[in-house]
Amino acid sequence: MKADGIGAAAHRLGGIGRVTGHQQYLADIRLADMLHVKLVKLDCARARIVSVDKSAAEQVPGVRLIMTADDLPQPVPRFGPQFQDRPILADGETKYHGEPVAAVAADTKEAAEEAARLVVVEHEVLEGGVFSVADALDPGAPLVQDPSIRADDQWARTNILREHRFGWGDVDAQEADLVIENLYEFPMVTHFAIEPHGFMAAPDGEGIAVWSTIQHPYLLQKTIGKLLKLPLSKVRVFAPDPGGGFGGKQNPKLEPLVAYIALHTGRPARLVLTLEETFQAVRRASAEVTVRTGLNSDGTLVFEDFECNFLIGAYVDIADRVVTKGSYLAAGPYRVPAVRIVARGILSHTTPSTAFRGFGIPQVTWARESNLDEGARALGIDRLEIRLHNLAEKGEEFVPGDTPADGHWVQSVQRAAELIGWDQPLAPGRGRGIALGLKSGPTTGLSYSTVRLLADGSVLVFSGTSDMGQGARTVFAQIASQELGVPLDRISVVMGDSSVVPYDQQTSASRSSVLMGTAVFNACLDIRNKLTALIAARFEVPESDISIEGGVVRIPDVEMTITEALQAGLGPLGGELVGNGEMRKDKDPSHPLGGSAAFFEFNTTAIELEVDPGTGEITILRHITVGDVGTALNPLQVAGQDEGAAIMGLGHTLMEHYIFDEDGRIRNLGAIDYRIPTSMDLPLQMRSDSIENADGPGPYGVKGISEGALLAVSPAVGSAVTEATGLIIRDLPLTPQRVWEAMTERA
Predict the structure, then answer these.
(1) 657-716, pLDDT tens digit by residue?
(2) Which residues contact 685 (CB under 8 A, 6 or more apart)?
(3) Which residues are the active-site residues?
(4) The model's pTM
(5) Structural domain total, the chain
(6) Which of 190, 348, 491, 707 lies 20 to 30 A from 546 at CA?
(7) In terms of domains, do 417 and 450 share one?
């Protein structure tokens, strides 16, 4: 089964449609009598809304509705995956640049855009906006959220959403030969998915149908049902394969607004954001991380002490979870006797942050690994050796009472060092860096799958997972191919309709291959068990005498394909066999994260680069990424995911960041002014490698992948820059201007 099954570089299901333009994204879907929606916004971050004048806009031909907060149920409904704090439309005051104040629905897109320009919002720009951690923690700063939204919350009268404390041992009692303490800054960046966010809704009998570019269709179903007071059976969610998500499409955003418009007008309504509007809708949390690292003279870690402040924006979205999960493993994959972690989510008058590939880990990894490098240099110890000296071994409980190290991580480190040529001489102006990243996989999970083996031997796989580019369809089909002996071209994977596919908790945390993959695997086993019973009855033999392997069914003196066996068992009436599978990881209320990690994503990134002394420009000569994957179900897809993550990591390391003016307005909205890596910025050489020991919890020993190669890019690059120039720069991105200014200041 190597041609199509596990371990094969099978061709991507749906790949031809993606590259030829035949795949239907949400913006390609047209509904009869559909209204087009355009948002009305203010060109400022924080303003008190005095009034909204619709009169001129209502005169535009084709305008059917101009919705403001006053047109919604009162008080204005609020929603969110963690806190019910985000209003459908700005309620009395805008909290960030680009927050919608009103929405226009018209027969044509052009009419909606014209009317949106004519809506007059009388407003008072409020001074003293909170745009940084320092702003937010100033005792005289205005509160971003009204305290009544977080009633009975000890932090409600501050701009601190939550403060979390993790760790073990007594940091203050430890004695170290060397203590290194520094502050590291990580920038605010956007997801920049190729497909902007899109939302549609339409009345559907006694309920509503919603279309969204969302990663969590069932969370959206629950959110809409709660807001509209509808049973889940009356909320149908369509989730077409999105064109990239990276966490930005994880949770509901503007779907509730579009749903209210559809129900108010009795017509389908659609809103597709521009790229600039998407910048104002989602971003990664920026962070300031202070680290104190205690080391003995031989390089042994004595303690780690972290203070992590994440600037999360005006509304919480999933940011509190990002703060906790991103900080919990702040000490990384090392054995450390004492660790103290204080992590805060800080509210600000900026775009609400949400999940982003890496889920808070890159921010903390940048600080930890960079600080460890400074300790190694101060002690005169090789940066590779100090990591190997402290790295946890497989089975070691490096976080007391939690999931032990689940891989031979040293293999990944040594492989990366070998591929980068760690011990080879360097030319002047060049440097090498190496860094380790560790992320816990899902701490809870629930995935169901249904698989149908049809009478002609073809297969339908039903899954609630969203395929946003990670290749989930292909992997699920490969599992079915492996277990049922059916070639990929006879397998279809059905996704994206909550009324058709069974429940899946979410598509995030690199869980698809492990959790939904196990559900698909179990559904195929269910079919095999039913087929065994069917054949036993048909041929009057004990089930113990029947074996199914590699698509072949064997009974004494008879050998046949699964299709032949199925048709013989079903008889002239035909029919099908239906298998159901489940994968569940229940919540553990006693755990700080609600559960231990199902697996870890471990990655080693090694970089060789050159710095131009005249301009500060960094050229990545070689980029090595080595992940501990358990089993590569599809090696081609693993490499693609790793390389994509690595390049994304170069983005926030070298160039990406929001630029704000003094009033909190984003000044680099869109593709022209916001830089992301292009083909001109790629490493001259890039190599992705995998360590496979089949030691993961998923089918065939798989672990999750796709985030690992992003985690440690920044500290690996930063370390190499230090070696090439002698400069230590602790705030990202490492733009040519920032590097040049540091070199000039030193000179």
Answers:
(1) 999 999 999 999 999 999 999 999 999 999 999 999 999 999 999 999 989 999 999 999
(2) 621, 622, 623
(3) 707
(4) 0.96
(5) 3
(6) 491
(7) no
